[in-house]
Amino acid sequence: AARGESDAWDAITEMDEHNRPIHTFQVCNVMEPNQNNWLRSNWISRQAAQKVYVELRFTLRDCNSIPWVSGTCKETFNLFYHETDEAHGVKFRPAQYTKIDTIAADESFTQMDLGDRILKLNTEVREVGPINRKGFYLAFQDIGACIALVSVRVYYKKCPFTLRNLASFPDTVPRVDSSSLVEVRGACVDHAEERDTPKLFCGADGDWLVPLGRCVCSVGYEEIDGSCVACRPGFYKAYAGNIKCSKCPPHSFSYGDASAICRCEKGFFRAEKDPPTMACTRPPSPPRNLIFNLNDTCLLLEWSPPSDTGGRRDLTYNVQCKRCGPEPDHCQLCEDELRFLPGPLGLTNATVTVMDFSAHANYTFEIESLNGVSDMSSFPRQVAIITVSTDQGGPSLVGTLKKDWASPNSIALSWQQPEQTTLPIIDYEVKYYEKVLKYSVYDSKAPSVIVSGLKPATWYVFSVRTRTAAGYSSYSPKYEYETTGDCKYLRPSTVLICCTAVRPKNRVFCMTLIICHSWYFKAKMTSEDKRRANYQNGHGKSIKLPLSFSFTYVDPDTYEDPTQAVHEFTKEIDPSRIRIERVIGAGEFGEVCSGRLRTPGKKEIAVAIKTLKGGYVERQRRDFLREASIMGQFDHPNIIRLEGVVTKSRPVMIVVEYMENGSLDSFLRQHDGHFTVIQLVGMLRGIASGMKYLSDMGYVHRDLAARNILVNSNLVCKVSDFGLSRVLEDDPEAAYTTTGGKIPIRWTAPEAISYRKFSSASDAWSYGIVMWEVMSYGERPYWEMSNQDVILSIEEGYRLPAPMGCPVALHQLMLHCWQKERNHRPKFTDIVSFLDKLIRNPSSLLPLPESPGEEMDYPMFISVGDWLDSIKMSQYKSNFMAAGYNTLDSVARMSIDHAVCLYNHLIKNGLFLKRSLNLNWYCNMVPRYFTTLLLTH
Ligand code: ACK
Fold first, then answer.
1. Residues 407, 389: contact at Cβ < 8 Å?
2. Active-site positions, per UniProt (predicted)?
């Protein structure tokens, strides 16, 4: 440090309590007035920082402990700074300096401490910045204190170099503005490649936030401890991604490091479409046990599959036919002369039917088995061989067939009678078949035939052979014919096309048919009985689409594959349309950010983005997206709107409308007492309207609480948080946890706590609690009572009293929501119309009981006597009257002594609140809430 003008500061070396030397700057001119002693630091380069922190450690003498100094002795000093681009040397002008703060000591020492050698060290940290020049000076101004400056540490914060998701992120200095983040793009580590652009955000405190995107190890490399390591010999990795190297599949090997694929052993192969994970395979051995079966018209060849399939399943057979003369070497191929059913090549069954063969001929059939790698092997193929002699018939005697006439279903054919035959012709056999199907035969005595029963618009093949005593001749050349079409066989699609041609009135009907038809398929595809049935049973509703008022909610858990529910009910958003701006909170699964969403052709909108943090397991991803599948089914101004989801890239995100004022509980706490009752009732009305919509949809929220309501800039409240129901359902422990576990005891109806009977009626109970939270500006329901006490006191009939200034009508509504018998609680539709009535008639919102006779939906007690009757305390009428409590208003203002006295009396007589409430708590509430305690009992 450099000394200032006055030279009052002294550089002194002292010993600390451990006898180690400490170097300090000290000043202690406490006796003299008007001190102005400066001490200046050397020039400090700001390096990369924009904002720096100055940590001062100092001791300060307590003025009271120094005699005769009153008026002159000070207990503070001032900290200044001055930005410059270069060091000024000794030049020091205090006027150039800007004050950072006045520094006071938390602890000052006295003479006694000094004697005991107790060092009362103070540590103070101040922020300085933004600093734009290359560096700065610090200066300390003493104005008459007794100070020893022990250390000055100047530092800045940075997000340190880090490796995340296989990407490296450099040292990054945060922004000066502590609420905005620096977006940093990561570089993939060696042998890794980008999936989604890896990014991190550097927060003001030097913490990395919101990891987005990632790199994955390239082919041949696997992730080990955050880097990509080559696969060892004998292992491979064929795809880039977060998978491990795998052992080479059977009959393959890899010699080197970092193999993308394993090579096949000699004699083994991989077909073009075989995945690298598949074993290498070889061609099959030949078929076995080949036999034939010959009758008049056909020859059946059958065989057994090969003993070695080569390790593959894509086994087929080819048949080759050779017709040989007397000399075995004189063979010709003959597949084209014969007809094979189903064909000569690519057979998948070990059998084939051969037709159209000639009589008195020798055929040799070779059956070859093949698989997907047969073409790759250079080894000669092995076949099964059989020779068949068709010792019957003779050459075809019939010439070309002629069509005489035809209809869609029949055809008349004729042919030339053979001129000369050695034996008389017994009959003709007419064979015909659908070109692609099985054939039929027809016997005809005459050289003509009428074949009926044909299908219209179908190709047929006909041929004829003669039969004599010596057997059949060969078949005549084939005659092919396509029967004509017929209206009867038109396809249904044609019917739909016809629709546009009918009269307008009928067209409507016709269109309806088409819509119903497509709806039918949609319903089949999406709902399936199981899912919709509960809503049909429970709510007596049928599924009618497509109008929104009759939608019912579909539980995503009824989908076998929950990702299908996500597809069905949410829109996938391309992450390039999302701009993340800042982190606004932490959700159950990861950060919640705010940002903007661009949609082509629309105005950019503000959104909240919930992210799923990396390293999640599948179940977490499913539970996270579950909320989106639920939210995506809703469309109501008081339900948080889902904009869409990002599931095809990392991180997985849920994008919803942005609610400027965040969650209702903290919003109310921050604005305690700021709103009119009408404004509060307006918020409650919105929540009730959202809940009415949910209950109409058959959705039970189970976690309705002010913390799960979001508020926008217009004070519109929207119900959010649709994740909980499954957690509760699955966790039998959760209902009984007393440690603030999963079940929100204070918000939950007794039947839901004790036997998990959740319903819209239990949501109505929670709604009553939300009303209480709102009217008390975010007070915690049942204050600091334990969960166990809350359960017990509810069981005994205790209900929350009216919050301060809460109109009685509203508290009555709360009490109505907290009826033990759930069927007696109001429906959300009743709540909405009741609140509407209150809003229309603001005088009903006065904080005192209504005057008798006013028309209300909820019972108003007319006199203290009636009221005591109604709560089965008639025997106390005279006590109340004697004490002067003859109106409810006066009961509400009961003196604390009377209230405690009555309370004790009731306790003593076992009349109410036996165990549940401790008296301290109770006394704090009396007398303001006494009426309510009694009212509800
Ligand atoms: O009380 P808050 O400011 O409001 O803090 C929490 C935080 O994120 C964690 O949930 C806020 N939040 C959640 N969803 C939204 C939203 N759609 N719009 C604005 N803030 C939101 C919530």
1. no
2. 703 (proton acceptor)
- Run of H or E including 609: strand 605-611
**Sheet of 52-60: strands edge to edge?**
10-15, 21-28, 146-155, 52-60, 122-128
Pocket lining: 37 vs ligand 1, CB cutoff 6 Å: no
Distance, CA of 914 to chain centre: 47
Number of Cβ within a 10 Å radius of residue 193: 15
Among the atoms of ligand 1, which is closest to the Cα of residue 707? 1
Cis, bond preceding 418 (omega within 30 deg of 0): no
* pLDDT for res 398: 74
On whether 706 is known to bind a ligand per the annotation, the reply is no
- Return all residues near 212 (Cβ < 8 A) that are at least 6 apart: 196, 197, 198, 199, 200, 580, 611, 650, 651
What does pTM read for this prediction? 0.43
**What pLDDT does residue 118 have?**
66
The tokens for 719 are 């119900």
Give helix 828-840 / helix 677-696 axis angle, nearest 10°.
150
Among 209, 578, 584, the mutation site with the greatest number of ligand 1 atoms within 8 A of its Cβ is 584
The pLDDT of residue 441: 64
Where does residue 420 rank: exposed (0-12), middle (13-18), buried (19+ CB within 10 A)?
exposed
Name the residue with the closest Cα to ligand 1, atom 12: 662
Position 772, amino acid: W
Cβ(58)–Cβ(121) under 8 Å?
yes
What pLDDT, on a 0 to 100 scale, did the predictor assign at position 929? 40
Whole-angstrom Cα distance, residue 102 to residue 786?
Answer: 45
Give bridge partners of residue 370 from the DSSP assignment: 316
**Sign of the alpha-carbon dihedral angle for 203, 206, 207, 213:** positive
CA distances for 716 relative to 682, 683, 685, 710, 850, angstroms: 8, 6, 10, 8, 29
In the prediction, which pLDDT does 114 show? 67
Query: What length does the chain have?
Result: 937
Identify each DSSP E strand in 674-716 by its residue range. 709-711
Rounded Cα–Cα distance for residues 581 and 606 (Å): 10
Which SS3 state, helix, strand or coil, does residue 765 take? helix
Cβ atoms of 610 and 654 within 8 Å: the answer is yes
What are the residue ranges in the chain where pLDDT is below 50? 392-393, 437-438, 486-550, 725-741, 848-862, 910-937
Cα 467 from Cα 477, distance rounded (Å): 16
Answer yes or no: 703 catalytic: yes
- Whether residue 587 is annotated as binding a ligand: the answer is yes
Q: How many CB atoms lie within 10 A of CB 458?
A: 17
Alpha carbon of 663 to ligand 1 centroid (Å):
6
Give the bridge partners for 383, in sequence order: 368
Q: Looking up tokens 């390096």, which residue turns up?
A: 47
Question: Whole-angstrom Cα distance, residue 538 to residue 285?
Answer: 63
Q: Is 712 in the pocket of ligand 1 (CB under 6 A)?
A: no
**How many angstroms separate the alpha carbon of residue 69 from the centre of ligand 1?**
55
Closest CA to 657 of 586, 723, 606, 590: 606
CB 356 within 8 A of CB 429: no
Measured between its terminal Cα atoms, the distance across the chain in Å is 74
Three-state secondary structure call for residue 782: coil
- Nearest residue (by CA) to ligand 1, atom 11, is 662
Which one, of 302, 306, 334, lies nearest residue 321 by Cα?
Answer: 334
* pLDDT for the residue numbered 219: 95
The DSSP result for 250-314, as a single string, is TTEE--SSS-SSPEEPTT-B--TT--TTSPPB-PPPPPEEEEEEE-SSEEEEEEEPPS--TT-S-
Q: Tell whether the torsion through CA atoms of 679, 682, 687 and 688 is positive or negative.
A: positive
What integer best gives the mean pLDDT of the chain? Answer: 79
Q: Which pLDDT score is estimated for 852?
A: 38
Side chain identity, residue 480: E
Residue 636: what residue type? H
